[in-house]
Amino acid sequence: DKGTYPYYMLKEIDEQPNVMRKLVKKYFDADGNMNVGCGLMDNILDSDRIYIVGAGTSYHAGLVGKELMEKYTGIPTEVHVSSEFAYEEPLLPKKPFFIFLTQSGETADSREVLVNVNKQHFPSLTITNVANSTLSREATYTMLLNAGPEISVASTKAYTAQIAIQAILAKAVGMRGNRQVAKDFDLGRQLGLVATGMQSIVEEKDKIDEIAKKYFVNAKQAFYIGRGVDYTVSLEAALKLKEISYVHAEGFASGELKHGTIALIEKGTPVIGIITQKKTAGLTHSNLEETAARGANALTIVRQSLAQDGDTFVIPDVDELLTPLLSVIPAQLIAYYTSLNKGLNVDRPRNLAKSVTVE
Ligand code: M6R
């Protein structure tokens, strides 16, 4: 039931702070010990490479997961689009471990990969929102997102829950592998800060509604740009905008724009820089200025400690690798309000189904 909300998508965006709190409750006990199965952790520790597989938004969550897994477990990690992996399987090492990200647990492209993985007897984990779903039943292990039903076709809370679970898994495995960097990661506290930060962002809806009206409702195209994890969030931000508001959008590595795509920038094209990483903030700012010099409406989603005069939307500071949990939310809301102000059916975009059960 969507209660007083006009659309499920807005309700689901608003639920994100609570989903974070629930995950902390579920995976950390009062003493800060973590509840992640030993068999699962040992299987991952025993592997020589982690493969994260997913489609659409779940794939984008995997791109952040890769950074988390590599930093905290020290195990090389690759992320693949499931429909590509299914028929172009890369050369695998001796002991791969597979992580399937799927909100529904029913995506045919991802299942096709799992079927092949099972044929080769490799261990696997499905991270899903739906207990007893096909991919959950067929994988060796399951971790549940506990995000509550996601009804809107556009995935929002599943993305943030998938990132949070991958952080939990990465820390747990890293600690079991005795890695200092994992022991030092105060994830329980950080996820608490994330929940509070999310809350403050969703309370700024009016501001984002204004941004949507001013820059996006009449736009033919838009760009999100960033570097590192900000680039991965750009991909997700652009997907949201395309999917529900039918504005053609691209997520771009900000340094790559000048190698061709900048030719598309016209007077008034919205270009949003996602700027949360200290070491690349200055670079993305200058890439953004290059687009402004060609007529773009340059906008920013910036973390507090990197904010300057003239930034468009400031998000609170949290651990750098966890910032996608916050930076994606203004982008989800920009897509929502653009769609709403265009009078579209936000929850049921054309040509799409919630769960894609054909290859
Ligand atoms: O249920 P899944 O996570 O496996 O679904 C994967 C994609 O179909 C899904 O994330 C899709 O991209 C969303 N509609 C995006 O908002």
From TrEMBL:
Source organism phylogeny: Bacteria, Bacillati, Bacillota, Bacilli, Lactobacillales
Residue span relative to the full protein: 247 to 605 of 605
GO cellular component, one term: cytosol
Signal peptide region: none
SIS domain mapped to chain residues: 40-179, 212-349
Enzyme class: transferase
Entry's EC annotation: 2.6.1.16
Keywords on record: Aminotransferase, Cytoplasm, Glutamine amidotransferase, Repeat, Transferase
Superkingdom assignment: Bacteria
Protein name: Glutamine--fructose-6-phosphate aminotransferase [isomerizing]
Catalytic activity: D-fructose 6-phosphate + L-glutamine = D-glucosamine 6-phosphate + L-glutamate
Molecular function via GO: carbohydrate derivative binding; glutamine-fructose-6-phosphate transaminase (isomerizing) activity
Keyword Cytoplasm listed: yes
Organism: Fructilactobacillus fructivorans
Gene Ontology biological process terms, A to Z: fructose 6-phosphate metabolic process; protein N-linked glycosylation; UDP-N-acetylglucosamine metabolic process
